């Protein structure tokens, strides 16, 4: 008899039509979460066990992902062998075909693996377009996928100085929004990367107008609620001259969410979760189990 198998999946989505990645409130009409659709797709594989998805990284309404991750357990009926990774990806994407959600990779992982707690780092990229007087003049490939700043002038040098303030280990209480889990989250985080580089439009080679883009990259093991959007908004405010670097330092050192100026949080549509990284050793099955369950696997466990 085949026992249950734990799978790690990586998935992408356009967040505009969903209430966030987490399950929607069943008592409220409106958008469903990405998790609702993923669990529906897994349920349609007719597992013997109830479906429960554990997602590594929560994103809000309107935020996108090129690579989020989650784990779940699956036991097939009638003593059928476990799905191979490739077949699982194809089967889930078949059931997700009407949604803006796609599975990109899947791995069989050890039974004690946890998508959230085993994650070593998470990377977010925030995309900013400049110089377009109204969002309707953006190429359609950019609608709801960037923050359009009408003002062409940004002091990128000042933005780099602002970004440098955020790198390292700090109490980021000033950069988290109020949430139900506020008392349980440690506000001390270590930012390994805060970087600002020129970006490009998805339609750059084909659109009739050149649109300057900037990308802000943030990498840490974990983030607080709306921390990335608040940091982005503050760095952009420095670039626009609305906030000085010393003022940003004062906000950081206040360690109080009420110290963050109202109206500076960057909008959701420019934010992408682009990577969730794990150690290869955490993904690898015990040799005997691997040989029994996955005789056809030959690919390396790349991040």
Automatic annotation (TrEMBL):
Protein name, please?
tRNA pseudouridine synthase
**Active site residues according to the UniProt entry:** 60
| Enzyme class label | isomerase
Checking Pfam families in the record gives: PseudoU_synth_1
Q: Which domain of life is it from?
A: Eukaryota
Reaction equations catalysed = uridine(38/39/40) in tRNA = pseudouridine(38/39/40) in tRNA; a uridine in tRNA = a pseudouridine in tRNA
Q: Where is the signal peptide?
A: none
EC number from the UniProt entry: 5.4.99.12
Indicate yes or no for the key word RNA-binding.
Answer: no
What is stated as this protein's family in its record?
Belongs to the tRNA pseudouridine synthase TruA family.
Name the positions where substrate binds. Answer: 124
Source organism per entry reads: Mastacembelus armatus
């Amino acid at each position: 008899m085949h026992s249950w198998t734990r799978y790690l999946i990586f998935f992408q989505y356009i967040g505009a039509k969903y209430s966030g990645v987490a399950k929607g409130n069943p008592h409220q009409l409106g958008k469903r979460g990405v998790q609702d659709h993923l669990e529906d797709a897994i349920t349609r594989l007719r597992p013997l066990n109830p479906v429960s998805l554990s997602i590594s990284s929560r994103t809000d309404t309107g935020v996108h992902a090129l690579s989020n991750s989650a784990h779940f357990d699956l036991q097939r009926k009638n003593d059928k062998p476990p799905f191979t990774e490739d077949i699982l990806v194809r089967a889930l994407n078949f059931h997700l075909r009407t949604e803006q959600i796609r599975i990109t990779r899947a791995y069989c992982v050890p039974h004690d693996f946890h998508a959230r707690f085993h994650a070593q780092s998470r990377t977010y990229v925030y995309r900013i377009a400049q110089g377009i007087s109204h969002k309707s003049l953006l190429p359609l490939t950019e609608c709801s996928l960037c923050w359009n700043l009408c003002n062409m002038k940004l002091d990128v040098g000042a933005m780099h100085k602002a970004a440098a303030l955020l790198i390292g280990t700090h109490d980021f209480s000033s950069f988290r929004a109020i949430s139900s889990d506020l008392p349980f989250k440690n506000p001390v985080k270590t930012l390994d990367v805060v970087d600002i580089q020129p970006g490009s439009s998805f339609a750059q080679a084909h659109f009739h107008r050149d649109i300057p883009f900037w990308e802000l990259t943030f990498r840490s093991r974990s983030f607080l609620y709306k921390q990335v959007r608040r940091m982005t908004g503050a760095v952009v405010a420095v670039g626009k001259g609305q906030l000085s670097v010393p003022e940003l330092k004062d906000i950081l050192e206040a360690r109080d969410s009420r110290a963050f100026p109202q109206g500076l949080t960057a909008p959701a549509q420019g934010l992408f979760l682009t990577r969730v990284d794990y150690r290869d050793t955490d993904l690898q099955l015990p040799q005997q189990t691997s040989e029994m369950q996955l005789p056809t696997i030959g690919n390396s466990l790349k991040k």
